[in-house]
Amino acid sequence: MTTPSPIRLTLPLTPEAARVLKVGDVVLLDGDAVATVGMPTQKRMVAEVEAERELPLFLRDGTFFHMGVSYEDSDRRPGAVHYVNPTTSSRFNHLMPTLIRGLRLTATGGKGGLSQESVDAMREVGCVYFSFVGGASALLSEGVEAVTDCAWRDLIMQFRLNRLRLSGFGPVIVAIDANGNSIYERLMSSARERLPEIMRSLRPSQNNETD
Amino acid sequence: MAITYELVKEVTANLYDWSLRRIPESSKAEFRKALASETEPQARQTLAFMLDSAERAETTGKFLCSDAGVPSYSIKIGSGARMEGDIRQAIVDGFAELTRTIQPPLLRFVTNPLTNERSFHGKDMPLVSWDLVGEGDYLDITCAPKALGGGRWAAVEILVSPSLDEIERCILEIVLRAGGQHCPPVVIGVGIGGTFDHAAKLSKDATLRPFGARNPEPRVAEMEERLTRAVNQMGFGPMGVGGSTTTFGVHVEYASGHGFTPVAVSFNCWINRRTRARIYNSGVVERIE
């Protein structure tokens, strides 16, 4: 009952490399990723993509994470990283399909997963979703070497588009793969299916007659 | 002697700071139990990573999470407590000073709900609830900051003359809706009865109870055990990517009410930020958690 050692990958992935990954794969990440937790940020991104304008940070065929970043910012240039931590991706369900297709993302991630519309978009373009452990900032932050760039400085720090250089970031888990498989969808359907049986098993000896 | 503005300001600010850097002892104990009982290898690996990270945060003074959470205090006032100065203002001022000086700096997360502007202050910040309890000569202060991931899945449903089965079904449906989104293994607080607001407060208070302590009424304690088993059978697991450790415990509190029965359910993520101290009239500060 041991887990296999993590696969080491460098970001950005090619769509072909993304398609090879399977739900449940455990991965350590190196390379380049852009991260934000901002709702206004992603609304602005959608507006730019829909208007076919380039984003201020290059993100085409790239990696886009739902992750908060705190860093030294005294001379208006990103400096040392204080800490990072994922945020709940599902609150951006309505924006992500446009971003995945429009930017042809090959990897995204955060925590909590994305809805079926995003799963479909990911399958089309060849993109995976990585699940990070939330609240494990102390260890997760050690995999972020630097904030190499940031855009949209009018927004608060964690809402900006922050470009990161990762080194051994994770382990993270492939929770949605590029072939239409989603751990979140599978677990939710299975829990929903089991609920009646779980309810029945609550009081096996009493025949459920309580009133 | 009295409980002074200065003391409350210092203690409440410290409680918040401490809560950002260490998880409660009873949570650590639950992690160790789950590492032995969880059968999914990947879920065990996630649990081990969580516990390692929490230990790293505690020993190096790092934050557990980038979302420091809305500052939230539950204060129990002994009837013998004597206070000097504006105690509510002390909490406001302590938090304001902390956000200016804390290292590493906090990200802005206090959000005006009407404009979505973020800062470190705002209306009713910090959130504080006050209860009068017994005859003690102290303030018993719990700080439990609430982050977005754990805060957003709470719900209150109002049932009419429900059976116990219907109440439990309602609880499990709220739990199912949240899935594994709230950074499990969570603590689940359930408040049943009273009024809308009272049930919500009972639910919140239930999340503050340390793991391992059951409700003193056997009927309710059995319900807690039953619901804990049921939630873990759903299979969401640590971080919602599968496993049998979705909750470390369902805690239930209830109050009498009328024929309409509010059922409130709230969650605290695995880091379960919670610190607690008592300030006595003598000026002695006793750190409890």
Report on the architecture of this protein.
The complex is a heterodimer of chains A (211) and B (289). With 211 residues, chain A is α/β, with parallel strands linked by helices. Chain A has 6 helices and 8 strands, in the order βαβαββαβαβαββα. In chain A, strand 1, helix 1 and strand 2 form a beta-alpha-beta unit. In chain A, helix 2 crosses helix 3 and helix 3 packs parallel to helix 4. The model of chain B has no long low-confidence stretch (mean pLDDT 97). The relative contact order of chain B is 0.21. Chain B folds into 2 domains: 119 residues, 2-Layer Sandwich (60s Ribosomal Protein L30, Chain: A); 121 residues. Chain B is globular and about 50 Å long. Helices cover 38% and strands 24% of the residues of chain B. With 289 residues, chain B is an alpha/beta fold. The two termini of chain B are 25 Å apart. Classes of the chains: A alpha/beta (211), B alpha/beta (289). At the A-B interface, strand 3, strand 4, helix 5, strand 8 and helix 6 of A face helix 3, helix 6 and helix 8 of B.
List the helices and strands and how they pair.
The complex is a heterodimer of chains A (211) and B (289).
Chain A: E1 7-11, H1 15-20, E2 26-36, H2 39-50, E3 63-71, E4 81-86, H3 96-103, E5 107-110, H4 116-125, E6 128-131, H5 137-140, E7 144-151, E8 161-176, H6 183-201
Parallel strand pairs in A: 1-2, 2-3, 3-5, 5-6
Antiparallel strand pairs in A: 2-8, 3-4, 6-8, 7-8
Helix pairs in contact in A: 2-3, 3-4
Chain B: E1 3-4, H1 5-19, H2 25-37, H3 41-60, E2 72-78, E3 83-84, H4 87-101, E4 110-111, E5 118-119, E6 127-133, E7 138-143, H5 148-151, E8 155-160, H6 164-178, E9 186-193, H7 196-208, H8 218-233, E10 247-255, E11 260-268, E12 275-280, E13 285-287
Parallel strand pairs in B: 1-3, 2-6, 9-10
Antiparallel strand pairs in B: 2-7, 4-5, 7-12, 8-11, 9-11, 12-13
